[in-house]
Amino acid sequence: MSKIILIGSPNSGKSLLFNRLTGLAHKVANFPGITVDIGSGNLQALPDKQLVDFPGTYSLQAISAEEEVAVGYFENALCDPEVEQVLCLIDATRLEKSLYFTLQVIRDCERHGKPVTVLANMIDVLDKHGLDLDVEGLSAALYTPVLPISGRTGKGVDAVIAALSRPLPEAGVTRSHLTETPDAILRGEAHQLARRFGPRDDILIRTQHRLDSFFLHSLTGGVAFFVIMYLLFQSIFTWSAPAMDAVEGALAWSADRVVPLLGNQVAADFTADALFSGVGAFLVFVPQIFVLTFIIGLLEDSGYMARAALICHKPLRFFGLTGKSFIPLLSGTACAIPAIYAARAIDSPGKRLLTYMAIPLMPCSARLPVYSLLIAAFIPAQTALGGLLGWQGLAMFGIYFFGMFCGLLITGLVSRVAGQRYQDLPFVLELPPYRVPGFVPILRNSVNRARHFVTKAGKIIFTVTLLIWVLGYFPNYGADLGQSWLGQIGRVVEPLFEPLGLDWRYGVAIFTSFAAREVFVGTLGTIFGIEGADENMVPLVEHIQSSQLALGSGLALLVFFAIALQCVSTLAILSKESSSRGLALKMFCGYFLLAYVAGIVVYQVTGWFVG
């Protein structure tokens, strides 16, 4: 089967065109972590031809590790005898920027005897503003066919299919003056070609400047930023709640009908507790991942995401991060899993690594049941200032702020201690033009991302859930969690938690919370013999209060859960996204040790003041 390469610079609409030509849901964007992925699919109109979508790069002179890999793939593909021709996509609204890369591609393809067809995308934008592109003149100057298209509307796509259907010239590729032209001269030639044949871009620049004067203004830009980020946060934290409830309801409905059909008690308990309750605990995050990916895709495709990164860069730079770290950190307050996915937008590997370090310390929604239980048990439900200030609300705000502060503090310290190791790339940001997002590709990519979470992370999560279930069920078949293997392990590790003033029961609850942080509440309820503690905490709160557990122990638990990386789902996704199990293991051990030491300090200090 013959192959056709599709290549272009970032933000040129390449993925939209690829999906239109192939009908696939695959997306290859200029995101760290997937820029080295190669999308491929047969053309819908020409099933015998395979279209290969290469990652977007600004130049064949790579400056980042991702671009080096992408350029290496392209150079290897030019030596592949199955590759018959190359489609080079350019942004007709930003001709000079695109032409420099295009001239490099044409030159290298001529050297390898591969014909090139240049596709001038965004022609619909030019038509909208009454601008013209001299296609014939540009084609003659490049010695290469140039076809005006619109990946968004489909205009000109039939001409692309017709061009690909024609047989290749037997005489081979015509060698032009570009064959031996160095990059320094190509840059100047791109500038001249854009001035001769390109549209008057001052109209487009003025339009973008008017919008930037609002979105980047010190006052209106700040207000717009907070409104947009609030809507993003609401979409992750609130708007996905109905879908998450629906997933939980579907799992409960399925469990009620499947479990009674199982005659074997062990099989029934395994299906109910390990499969529907255990594995189902991570499936409820799928709507959050879908919503986050969709909203971020809209912001990115519209051009606003780059503006948000620019606004946040200065304050985050103090902590060794970049402006592109803001969205992942914000997303982490809902769930660390979609936040790690969102970190793909960070092009610097070092900054991305620092962002990975900060995300698990953001106060995610899974910590909320634990915080609610401990605050209700240890902080009095009293108010001050005429009811305007509640101590429990203040405690909740404090523990949320504490987690965020710890995350930024750690990245700031690591970036300063590591020095230049994490200053690997400068903060270079392209401000793309404002555009109406392409909803279909974004929707497809959101579905793919949710599917990727289920298929990739599900294996690890199921393994850990199965292990915890086996330890908690045997040897007494779930009759008494305290007498199970898990309870026995709790008594073995009890000395580890004694410095925090905790006994084996809390140790077991901490251990099971590795499957999901909120499991801590349900485990304590099971050990104390309280049914439905994860839904109604009042009896469990009263039991903890009557047990005379020290205030220092409660505060130590709050601090411990604020810092410890107690989530197998997060570790699984972190391992996959960073391509490093070692990083996930080091972060788990490091944050556990830090949480443990911080808990001991809080317990001791509280004991000195309270007794």
UniProtKB/TrEMBL annotation:
<dbReference type="InterPro" id="IPR011640">
    <property type="entry name" value="Fe2_transport_prot_B_C"/>
</dbReference>
<feature type="transmembrane region" description="Helical">
    <location>
        <begin position="391"/>
        <end position="414"/>
    </location>
</feature>
<feature type="transmembrane region" description="Helical">
    <location>
        <begin position="587"/>
        <end position="610"/>
    </location>
</feature>
<dbReference type="Pfam" id="PF07670">
    <property type="entry name" value="Gate"/>
</dbReference>
<dbReference type="InterPro" id="IPR011642">
    <property type="entry name" value="Gate_dom"/>
</dbReference>
<feature type="domain" description="FeoB-type G">
    <location>
        <begin position="1"/>
        <end position="170"/>
    </location>
</feature>
<dbReference type="GO" id="GO:0005886">
    <property type="term" value="C:plasma membrane"/>
</dbReference>
<dbReference type="InterPro" id="IPR050860">
    <property type="entry name" value="FeoB_GTPase"/>
</dbReference>
<dbReference type="GO" id="GO:0005525">
    <property type="term" value="F:GTP binding"/>
</dbReference>
<feature type="transmembrane region" description="Helical">
    <location>
        <begin position="453"/>
        <end position="474"/>
    </location>
</feature>
<keyword id="KW-0472">Membrane</keyword>
<keyword id="KW-1133">Transmembrane helix</keyword>
<protein>
    <recommendedName>
        <fullName>Ferrous iron transport protein B</fullName>
    </recommendedName>
</protein>
<feature type="transmembrane region" description="Helical">
    <location>
        <begin position="555"/>
        <end position="575"/>
    </location>
</feature>
<dbReference type="Pfam" id="PF02421">
    <property type="entry name" value="FeoB_N"/>
</dbReference>
<feature type="transmembrane region" description="Helical">
    <location>
        <begin position="353"/>
        <end position="379"/>
    </location>
</feature>
<feature type="transmembrane region" description="Helical">
    <location>
        <begin position="274"/>
        <end position="299"/>
    </location>
</feature>
<dbReference type="Pfam" id="PF07664">
    <property type="entry name" value="FeoB_C"/>
</dbReference>
<dbReference type="GO" id="GO:0015093">
    <property type="term" value="F:ferrous iron transmembrane transporter activity"/>
</dbReference>
<keyword id="KW-0812">Transmembrane</keyword>
<dbReference type="InterPro" id="IPR030389">
    <property type="entry name" value="G_FEOB_dom"/>
</dbReference>
<feature type="transmembrane region" description="Helical">
    <location>
        <begin position="214"/>
        <end position="233"/>
    </location>
</feature>
<dbReference type="InterPro" id="IPR027417">
    <property type="entry name" value="P-loop_NTPase"/>
</dbReference>
